[in-house]
Each structure stands twice: as C-alpha cells, then as structure tokens.
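Anyone opening a protein record will find just a pair of labelled lines. A complete record is shown below as an example:
=====
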Amino acid sequence: MLFVADTLFVTINYISDKRTLQQSLKQDGQQLKRSFEVALTMTLNNMSQLATFIASSTEVQHLFAQGVQAVQEEGGGAGGAESAHLRDILYDSVSSGWATMTEKYQVRQLHFHLGPGSTSFLRVHKPEKFGDNMDNLRHMVVDVNRDGVPRQGFELGRVYSGLRGIVPVFF
C-alpha cells in the first residue's frame, strides 16, 4: 500500500511539474516571439528611415539623377566616363557618413540601383563593383523601381541575406 501511495504521489507531482514547465516554456516562448517581432519591426523602420533620409538629400537626388541620365546616354549597364565621374562624386557625397553608420550601427550595405529593374549604379560598401543587373535577385528593388512605393523586408542575396529598407530616389 505504501509503495502504491508513493508511486501515485510521485506520478501526480511529475505530471503537475511537467504541466507547469510546459506552461512556463510556452509563456517564455510567446514573450520572446513578441520581443523578436518588436525588434524586427524597429530594425526595418530604422533602415527605412535611414534610406529615406539619404534619398531625401537634394544633393543625392541631383547627383543620382545625373548619373541615371549619363548611364542612359552612354548605353546602359555600367555606363562610361561621365557615369564613372558622377558615381565617384555620389560616392564622395555619402561615403563618410556611411562609414560612420557601418562603424557605429553595424549596417552593411548602401546601394543605388537604376530602374527599370535593378541595375547596380553604386555600391557604397563596394564601389568598385557596378553595372551588373540584379533583377533576378533584388525583387523588392525591381518593385520599388516599378511603382515608386518604398518597401522593407527580408531578402536573399548573393553574399548576404538580410533585412532591407528600400526607397525610391526622386529628382
């Protein structure tokens, strides 16, 4: 009788502790999920704010518009000498601020794309690489260049997959 009572007592405690642990883990999981969602939303909004700030600069707008025109006049793709000159000026305009952002806030990429679609005009994070078409990789950029509506989200990449905030640059 004592053995049965002990076994029953241990079993009841085990089941109760198991339920309590499962409830606690479920609550912790829900809290972590909410925290992750808040952090994700804030990160995406911060990226979009940064992109909007850069795209709102009249200097950036003017230089990029000139670069777009030069690439068109020089046959598309990477463009020619005038495109390269304007690319260098645009890089000089944003690179020092961008260096500070990457150092202090761990942002990785700033990229100017030509529409329609997504042809690289300037990778501020890798200025020696440009002129390549990324239509099959940067779907959000293609969409933004098509309709002018900013977007944010997760996107796969050749090197980095990550969160992106994309805004159009209008002049």
In short: The helical segments are 2-55, 58-73, 81-105, 139-147. Residues 60 and 93 are 7 Å apart (CA to CA). The mean pLDDT is 93. The first helix runs from residue 2 to 55.
